[in-house]
Design goal:
- The structure holds two protein chains of two kinds.
- By secondary structure, chain A is α+β, with helices and mostly antiparallel strands.
- Chain A is built from eight helices and ten strands.
- In chain A, strands 6, 7, 8 and 9 form a four-stranded antiparallel sheet that branches.
- The longest helix of chain A has 73 residues.
- By secondary structure, chain B is α+β, with helices and mostly antiparallel strands.
- The chains are: A alpha+beta, B alpha+beta.
- At the A-B interface, α1, β6, β8, β9 and α7 of A face β6, α5, α8, α9 and β9 of B.
- β10 of chain A pairs parallel with β9 of chain B.
């Protein structure tokens, strides 16, 4: 009897627990809860916290309350190709930031499935992007617009997504580049430009070096020239001074000075090296020299 | 009906007629869990257990359940707690308690003081038609935890991280800002001195883009630690670097030349001047010496002029002739050649004796000319 009651109470307890768990739902922070009865929306805008529902029949699902980032690469499985007005193809990636404004409408159109909603947004967005991109030339996209998408794309997108109950706040270009085959051409021109630059740098270096050298040479010449002038001046001064000194002496007795000076000069000049002097019989020096005739030979 | 037979007021499902396997099951269960039940059995007590003996277990379970609510927030992290999924606040580092599951729960959010987001961008187009590879680094911190966690939706791929949504949003906006800023600049700017301006521009664009979303973060720094040309162009880029080196080298060599040259020139100049000065000094001292000597002799001359002249003349001749090769000719009686001193270096014969010097037999390279008459001036 007791066991019967115990088992029964155990079973009852389990059932109660199941019922309790089925009649409450938790809405997490950052989400808004939607109560669905038998799959149709009964109530939206359930705030984070504990909520009650009808067991089994009712289901609470959560929708992201705030900004959702749509990644174009995720949605498209990679970059998309956009063509400019002049037929140039680019590879692009983008991001769109959106949120749910009308949970009712959203659930009606997507079955409360955010992935579904994101796909629908992306499907509406890509034609708009293609259209916007085809409105300008490649050069304009690269230099004037710098890849910035037109400001009206979110508004245009929202008007097309009227029934979805969402608002797209911004659409940004996160990558814009050339397809691989066009990149090669760019690399080629980059390489050429760099070759030119390298040549120019080298030439500039050589020119600068030459300039430095020339300047140094010029400075050297100037220094030497100045020194030369100075040296000449000194020599000139010396000669003038020496001459003055000699002159002073000369003035005391010009004739004797001349005689004496000559003797000095003879001595200095002839003393060096091998000189040959020829003396004749009338030479004053040989006045008393009579060859082998002896000292007592008659004088001339 | 069998069990309603008069006299038998018993339910066939009473204990005596219980299906045997159930009874065995309960018995074995009872035996095995006997120690739990405290062994309070009456005589036929195997048939029932005292549920009351379980009651001591309940407080233990409740205590364990309550203890599970404790959690520790490590330093440098923040704790976030919830009640029934609703955000209830932030917990600073330390020990905290939240209402245990399923009522309450806590998350630990790491690194809220400052975080870095780094991303490498290949094939970014610049405004002047080039392609660059840029490494970007973004530094940000959380200003409002609630906004940070709940204003950007957590992507389905990472449901465990409540802050994954903010990171995804930030990443997308950084991509757009960096791409946009680079597209408005040039390759030269990015590789060189203009990089700071591009970084500032990207930061500005990022903050402007972030503004409508109240993401609860503040971006403090956006930098490009590394900007380089794509792999395919790297060799010519290396060439440019090489060219810089070559140019610098050439300049250095020229400077070295200049640095060497000028001191050298100065030394040469100084030497030249010294030489001139030496000449100057020599000349003047020579003049002074000569003049002094002259003045000394002059004094002697004034005392005895003729004598002095004679003496001077003879001294000079003596001195000169001692060191010279001499040829004495006597033209009065034909020619007598007497050689004194060293012989001619050009003459084939050594000392030749007297030879009659007829007009045709003159000794080589010697022509005798009569000496001029000696006047008052001594002449040789």
């Amino acid at each position: 009897m007791q066991l019967h009651r115990s088992i029964t109470s155990l079973i009852i307890a389990v059932v109660v627990l199941i019922l309790i768990s089925q009649s409450v739902a938790i809405v997490r922070q950052g989400q808004m809860g939607v109560l669905l009865n038998n799959g149709s929306v009964a109530q939206t805008g359930l705030k984070p916290g504990l909520h009650f529902k009808v067991p089994f029949v009712g289901r609470v699902t959560g929708l992201d309350d705030h900004w959702i980032t749509l990644d174009g690469q995720n949605q498209n499985g990679g970059n998309i190709k956009l063509t400019s007005s002049d037929g140039k193809t680019f590879e692009a990636a983008y991001a769109a930031v959106w949120h749910i404004t009308d949970a009712d409408a959203f659930c009606r159109t997507t079955g409360c499935d955010e992935e579904n909603g994101a796909r629908r947004i992306n499907d509406a967005l890509t034609p708009l992007l293609r259209q916007a991109f085809a409105a300008h030339s490649a050069a304009q996209w690269l230099s004037d617009r710098n890849g910035a998408l037109p400001q009206n794309i979110p508004a245009e997108l929202n008007s097309r997504l009227n029934d979805l109950g969402v608002e797209v706040r911004s659409v940004q270009m996160t990558a814009l580049t050339l397809p691989p085959d066009q990149l090669d051409a760019v690399y080629q021109s980059m390489r050429a430009a760099q070759s030119d630059q390298a040549a120019q740098i080298r030439a500039q270096g050589v020119a600068k070096a030459d300039e430095i050298r020339a300047q140094a040479d010029q400075q050297k010449a100037a220094i030497l020239a100045k020194a030369d002038i100075q040296a000449q001046q000194i020599r000139g001064q010396a000669e003038a001074q020496a001459t003055a000194i000699y002159a002073r002496a000369y003035q005391q007795d010009p004739e004797f000075f001349s005689f004496y000076r000559r003797l000095q000069a003879y001595r200095r000049a002839i003393k060096q090296g091998n000189s040959v002097i020829v003396l004749g019989p009338d030479s004053g020096f040989l006045k008393y020299f009579d060859g082998l005739k002896g000292p007592n030979a008659p004088r001339r | 009906m069998v069990w309603k037979e008069p006299g038998k007021d018993k339910d066939p499902w009473s204990s005596a007629q219980r299906p045997p396997d159930l009874e065995r099951m309960v018995k074995s269960l009872h035996k095995r869990l006997g120690w739990l039940f405290g062994g309070q059995r009456s005589g036929g007590g195997q048939r029932h257990f005292h549920a009351a003996t379980l009651w001591w277990l309940v407080p233990v379970i409740i205590a364990a359940w309550l203890i599970s609510g404790f959690y520790k927030v490590p330093p440098g992290n923040s704790g976030v707690h919830y009640v029934f999924g609703r955000y209830t606040g932030v917990a600073e580092p330390g020990l905290h308690w939240h209402a245990p599951w399923p009522v309450g729960r806590a998350d630990i959010i790491p690194g809220v003081e400052g975080r870095d987001y780094a991303h490498s961008y290949n094939r970014l187009l610049t405004g002047d038609g080039n392609v660059v590879v840029v490494d970007a680094l973004v530094h940000y911190h959380v200003t409002d935890m609630h906004d940070y966690l709940f204003h950007a939706a957590t992507p389905a791929t990472e449901p465990q991280n409540p802050d994954a949504g903010a990171k995804v949003l930030l990443a997308a906006l950084v991509d757009a800002a960096v791409r946009g800023a680079v597209a408005q600049s040039t390759l030269a700017n990015l590789m060189g001195g203009g990089r700071d301006a591009v970084e500032a521009d990207a930061l500005k664009q990022l903050n402007a883009a972030l503004q409508p979303y109240d993401a609860g973060i503040a971006v403090t720094r956006l930098a490009f630690p590394r900007v380089s040309v794509p792999e395919a162009v790297s060799s010519s880029d290396a060439d440019v670097q090489g060219a810089h080196q070559d140019a610098n080298q050439a300049e250095d060599k020229a400077r070295a030349y200049a640095d060497n040259l000028l001191p050298q020139a100065q030394a040469e100049a100084d030497a030249q001047i010294k030489e001139a000065q030496a000449y100057h000094d020599t000349l003047i001292s020579q003049a002074q010496a000569d003049t002094a000597r002259f003045e000394a002799v002059l004094t002697a001359y004034r005392k005895a002029p003729a004598l002095t002249r004679e003496e001077l003349y003879v001294q000079t001749m003596e001195d000169i002739l001692a060191n010279a090769d001499k040829v004495i000719v006597d033209t009065r009686n034909g020619s007598v050649t007497v050689q004194l001193g060293r012989p001619f270096t050009s003459a084939p014969t050594a000392a030749s004796a007297s030879a009659k010097a007829a007009t045709g037999a003159a000794p080589p390279a010697v022509t005798a000319t009569p000496a001029p008459a000696a006047g008052t001036r001594g002449g040789a």
